[in-house]
Design goal:
six-stranded antiparallel barrel; binds ligand 2Y5; single chain; about 30% strand; about 450 residues
C-alpha cells in the first residue's frame, strides 16, 4: 500500500452524483449549507497549499496532530458530536433488526446497518469541528412509522478527544452506546485518524427475538492522502468487526485503501463467521459508497446488501438555536459555522479561536482551583471498553416509560426546557444516582 508513500499519483477530480443533504435539519440555514455530493477529493488552491506546507514543515512523520491547529478551510461546518449521527440516518436499515427471528439473519441485518452509514460525508476532504470539553448535542428523528428516536452526546475528554453518545429508538427496542476516540497522526504525504473506541448496540425487546443481545462494533480509520503532492483524497481503511457474543457470530470487514498501482477506491471485503465452529457463513464485497453485496456460502447465492448510491438519509431534527444553551454544538459554534458557510476563513478562524480560548481559560481556572472536570450527561464505565455511558437509568418496561426517561436527561424536543435542578455546576462531582435529572415532563406538543 502507498499509504505511507510520498508519491501518491494524481487523482482526477471526479464530480459526483448529487444526493440529499446530510447536514443539520434546521430549516433556517439549510439553504446556506453546501450541497453534499459523492465527491471525495479536494483541490486546494495555492494559498491553501502553502498554509498546509507551512504546518507540515514543522511536523515529523508520526507526529500527533491533535494539538496542531489546522487551517479552517478543511473544516466541515458542524461538530463531531453531530457528525456521529450520520450513523443513525438510515433508520430503514436500523429499525427492522428487532423483527428478524433467525439469529444469523438478524446478525446480517446489523451488519447491513453498520455498512449503510459510511457513504454519508461532506463533499471533499473535511473534518468536523473538534468539540470542546463538555460540549453537548442532542437531536431526534421522526421515523416513518410516527415513532421517534433520540440521540444525546457530550465531549467527555479534550486531550485526548473523546465523544460519547447514546441513541435510543424506544418503540423499536434498539439502544446504542458509544465513545469515539480519534487519534490523529501525520504520516508524510498523508494523515490518518485512527478511530478508536467502540459502539455497543443492544436489543432490548422483552419477549421478542434476540432480547438482550449485544453487538459490539468498531470504526474504520480515516486517511487523507495527497497532502503534499496531487489532490487530497479521503479514504477509509483497515479492519473492523461486528461481534455478537450471544450467538458466536462475527463479521470481519476490511476497508481497503487503494494500492499504489492496483485496486480501486472505497472497496470493502469481509466475511461473517461462526466464531465457535469457524464456519464461514457469508462473504461481503462491494464499495462502501456504492453497492455492497452479500453471498451466502452454503447456497452460493449472492444478493445486494445495500445500495448506498440511491439511499436517502433521514435527517435528525434539532431544537431551534434560540432554545439551545451555550454548551450545545449548533449554538456554541454558530458564528464559526456562519463564517465557514460564507467561506470567510479569517472570521471562521477568529470565531473558532474565541470558543477555544474560553475552553483554555476554563481549564486554567479549574487547575488553579484544583477542580476535576466531570461530564454532565455521561459517567465513566469499565464495561465493553465504552469509557463512558449515559448517566441515567434507561430501564423502563414499556416504550412510553423509556421515552420519558430519555427526555428527562436533557432537552431534545422543541419547547422543552431544562430545569434548574439539571444544571450541575462544573466543579461539583456528579451525584452517583440519576436523581438530578428533571422530573418535569418535557412539552412534547411542539413538533
Ligand atoms: C485543535 O485544532 P483543530 C488543536 O489541535 C487543539 O490542540 C486545541 O486544543 P488546546 C483545540 O482547541 C483545537 O484548536 C486539530 C486536530 C484535533 C486533527 C480532532 O484544528 C485532524 O480544531 C487530523 O484540530 C486529520 C487527519 C485525518 O485535528 C483524516 O487531528 C481525518 O483533533 C479526516 O479534531 C479528514 C478531514 C480533513 C483532514 C484534511 C487535511 C489534513 C491535513 C493535515 C496536515 C498536517 C479529532 C480528529 C477528527 C478526525 C476527523 C474524522 C472524520 C469524522 C469521522 C466520523 C466517524 O488544548 C463517525 O490546544 C463514526 O486548546 C461513528 C460510529 C458510530 C457507529
Amino acid at each position: 500500500s502507498s499509504m505511507f508513500g510520498g508519491h501518491t499519483p494524481h487523482i482526477p477530480h471526479v464530480s459526483g452524483r448529487r444526493r440529499g443533504s446530510t447536514t443539520s435539519s434546521r430549516k433556517s440555514d439549510e439553504a446556506d449549507r453546501p450541497d453534499p455530493t459523492e465527491d471525495d477529493t479536494t483541490v486546494v488552491d495555492e494559498g491553501e497549499k502553502s498554509m498546509l506546507l507551512s504546518i507540515i514543515s514543522q511536523l515529523k512523520p508520526g507526529a500527533d496532530l491533535s494539538r496542531i491547529t489546522l487551517p479552517t478551510f478543511i473544516l466541515e461546518p458542524r461538530s463531531m458530536l453531530e457528525r456521529i449521527t450520520n450513523f443513525m440516518q438510515h433508520p430503514e436499515t436500523l429499525l427492522p433488526m428487532t423483527t428478524v427471528d433467525d439469529p444469523v439473519e438478524r446478525f446480517v441485518s446489523v451488519v447491513k446497518f453498520y455498512l449503510s452509514g459510511w457513504h454519508l460525508k461532506p463533499p471533499g476532504v473535511k473534518k468536523p469541528l473538534n468539540p470542546i470539553l463538555g460540549e453537548q448535542f442532542a437531536c431526534y428523528w421522526n421515523l416513518p412509522d410516527k415513532c421517534r428516536a433520540y440521540y444525546i452526546s457530550e465531549q467527555t475528554s479534550h486531550h485526548p478527544p473523546k465523544s460519547s453518545y447514546f441513541y435510543l429508538a424506544p418503540h423499536h427496542h434498539i439502544r446504542i452506546d458509544g465513545t469515539l476516540k480519534p487519534r490523529s497522526r501525520f504520516l508524510g504525504n498523508s494523515a490518518a485518524s485512527m478511530m478508536e473506541g467502540v459502539s455497543l448496540l443492544t436489543l432490548t425487546n422483552k419477549g421478542k427475538p434476540g432480547v438482550g443481545e449485544k453487538y459490539i462494533l468498531n470504526q474504520p480509520n480515516i486517511y487523507v492522502r495527497g497532502i503534499l503532492f496531487g489532490t487530497m483524497k479521503y479514504e477509509l481503511g483497515d479492519y473492523v468487526y461486528v461481534r455478537c457474543p450471544e450467538n458466536n457470530l462475527v463479521a470481519e470487514i476490511e476497508f481497503r485503501v487503494k494500492g499504489f498501482f492496483t485496486g480501486t477506491y472505497n472497496a470493502i471485503h469481509g466475511t461473517i463467521k461462526n466464531e465457535k465452529t469457524g464456519e464461514k457463513l457469508y462473504e461481503i464485497t462491494g464499495k462502501w459508497n456504492e453497492d455492497m453485496y452479500i453471498k451466502n456460502e452454503s447456497t452460493g447465492k449472492s444478493e445486494l446488501l445495500f445500495d448506498a448510491t440511491n439511499a436517502k438519509p433521514t435527517l435528525p431534527l434539532v431544537r431551534p438555536i434560540s432554545e439551545q444553551n451555550e454548551k450545545e454544538s449548533q449554538n456554541l459554534w454558530a458564528p464559526t459555522i456562519r463564517a465557514l458557510l460564507k467561506k470567510d476563513q479569517d472570521a471562521a478562524s477568529d470565531e473558532k479561536t474565541k470558543v477555544e480560548e474560553k475552553q483554555r481559560s476554563d481549564t486554567r481556572k479549574r487547575e488553579a482551583d484544583g477542580i476535576e472536570w466531570v461530564p454532565q450527561l455521561f459517567k465513566p464505565t469499565d464495561e465493553f471498553g465504552l469509557d463512558y455511558i449515559i448517566h441515567a437509568n434507561i430501564d423502563g418496561k414499556d416504550p412510553e416509560t423509556l421515552e420519558k426517561q430519555v427526555l428527562a436527561i436533557t432537552p431534545i424536543l422543541p419547547g422543552s426546557h431544562s430545569t434548574g435542578k439539571f444544571e450541575i455546576p462544573p466543579h461539583q462531582n456528579h451525584p452517583n444516582d440519576p436523581s438530578h435529572v428533571p422530573v418535569t415532563e418535557p412539552d412534547t406538543s411542539a413538533k
